[in-house]
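hey can u check if this looks right to u? its 135 residues, i copy pasted from the old doc so theres a chance i mangled smth
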Amino acid sequence: MELGLKLQTELSYEQCKITYWSDSITVLRYIKCESLRLKRFVDNKICFIRNYSSPNDWFYVPTNCNPADLISRGTTVCNLIGSNIWFSGPEFLTNMNNYPDQFFDRNIPEKDDELKRTPITLTTSIDALTLTDLV
């Protein structure tokens, strides 16, 4: 995200369209859901993303199309040298008709750790008693 903003500024392309890709469906759910109440750290990141991009600019890239996953999941130098995806990127970047499927469940699980919980307040009242009432 920050790299895209920096490139726009440095190259004087303020009006160009940037498409962002993430391999995290969870992050994409956060970005695309406007009504979430997230914990502070994640909320700050998502607010930053929404301030400088549209949720419609964000897309999912599956693991098998993600060059970064070659390294993060462990591979050999020989595999990298022979990898088209490593040197050329995913095929869909050069042919927009081959974009990966973008249909994923956009619902956020209720037990997601980053969701801010609404506190429940319970109140009780006790009638004041005097000593004479107890005798």
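Residues 40-52 form the longest helix (13 residues).
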